[in-house]
């Protein structure tokens, strides 16, 4: 299918989601289809590295840009991360992307995701992994006291873990939705509160993903393509705002520390388009 035709099909599919919202799922409006020459600074902000200490020394081949022309123009985010080679314990990870300029107003989002390429190689002690999708930091059960510590976050996206020592770029990606709680001030560590597996997709395929926060019913509602919405409840209090009201599109790579060559890495290249948000 030609690129223009592919994106037109996805526009129609998102249009179907917009006009057929279910109970608890708000109707959506177009926020950005990335057709402009530059990012609109009133709509978007840059997202920093999610590495402890703010370092991006293990990241290579970094891209956040508008790419393509006409109906095929889109947001392009890509990165390659490499392992720390000083020891064989632990992992290092890096992620970044593009965030909503006024995130607290975004309670529901739908978007088109294409994982163009992903490739990784792990080590004998652990696998490497890559992720791409949407991440939102929504509320804090007790009131934020230390950055994002205690914040409840929700995400939807596509991910894959490599085998330990082989390089693998052929397998499908898992699509999943997660509700988690931040353990530390930068949310580098999280406790999973709920997890939903929505099946697999192939690299290069275009898929419409959405998540909405249904606060009155204490749940998040996930949806993939034209499948039925999936409500996922949480049991913690949602009375207080989060320490960081972040809503963003991201790519993330996690690689194990390894002293054995070849050096482990995680590489992911993704396209985002047709972003719709709550009215």
Task: Output the keywords.
279 residues; mainly beta; Jelly Rolls; 9-stranded antiparallel beta sheet; 7-stranded antiparallel beta sheet; 1 helix; 16 strands
Please explain how this structure is put together.
- 6% of the residues lie in helices and 50% in strands.
- A hairpin with a 4-residue loop joins strand 12 and strand 13.
- The protein has 279 residues and is mostly beta strands.
- The chain is built from one helix and 16 strands.
- It has a single domain (3-278), classed as Sandwich (Jelly Rolls), CATH 2.60.120.
- It has one helix at residues 3-19, and strands at 28-32, 44-47, 59-67, 74-82, 91-100, 108-121, 129-139, 152-161, 167-168, 173-182, 190-201, 206-214, 219-224, 230-233, 247-256, 265-278.
- The longest helix has 17 residues, at 3-19.
- It starts with a helix and ends with a strand.
- The protein is globular.
- The strands form two sheets. Strands 1, 3, 4, 6, 9, 12, 13, 14 and 16 form a nine-stranded antiparallel beta sheet that branches. Strands 2-5-15-7-8-10-11 form a seven-stranded antiparallel beta sheet, with no helix packed on it.
Quick summary:
The chain has one helix spanning 3-19; strands at residues 28-32, 44-47, 59-67, 74-82, 91-100, 108-121, 129-139, 152-161, 167-168, 173-182, 190-201, 206-214, 219-224, 230-233, 247-256, 265-278. With 279 residues, the chain is mainly β. It has one domain (3-278): Jelly Rolls (Sandwich), CATH 2.60.120.
């Amino acid at each position: 299918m030609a690129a223009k035709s592919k994106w037109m099909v996805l526009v129609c599919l998102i249009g179907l989601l917009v006009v057929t919202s279910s109970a608890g799922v708000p109707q959506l409006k177009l926020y950005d289809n990335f057709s402009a020459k530059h990012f609109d600074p009133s709509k978007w902000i840059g997202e920093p590295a999610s590495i402890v200490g703010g370092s991006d020394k293990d990241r290579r081949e970094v891209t956040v840009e508008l790419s393509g022309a006409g109906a095929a123009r889109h947001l392009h985010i890509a990165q390659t991360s490499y392992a720390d080679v000083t020891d064989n314990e632990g992992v290092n990870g890096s992620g970044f992307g593009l965030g909503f300029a006024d995130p607290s107003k975004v309670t529901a989002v739908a978007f088109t995701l294409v994982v163009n390429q992903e490739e990784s190689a792990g080590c004998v002690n652990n696998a490497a992994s890559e992720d791409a999708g949407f991440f939102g930091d929504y509320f804090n059960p007790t009131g934020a006291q230390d950055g994002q510590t205690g914040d409840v976050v929700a995400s939807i996206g596509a991910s894959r873990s490599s085998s330990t020592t082989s390089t693998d770029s052929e397998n499908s990606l898992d699509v999943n939705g997660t509700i988690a709680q931040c353990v530390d001030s930068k949310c580098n560590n999280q406790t999973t509160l709920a997890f939903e597996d929505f099946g697999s997709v192939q690299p290069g395929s275009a898929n419409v993903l959405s998540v909405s926060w249904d606060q009155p019913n204490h749940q998040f509602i996930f949806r993939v393509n034209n499948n039925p919405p999936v409500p996922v409840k949480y049991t913690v209090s949602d009375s207080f705002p989060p320490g960081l009201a972040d809503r963003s599109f991201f790519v993330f790579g996690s690689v194990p520390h390894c002293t054995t060559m070849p050096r482990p890495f995680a590489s992911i290249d993704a396209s985002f388009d047709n972003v719709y948000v709550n009215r």
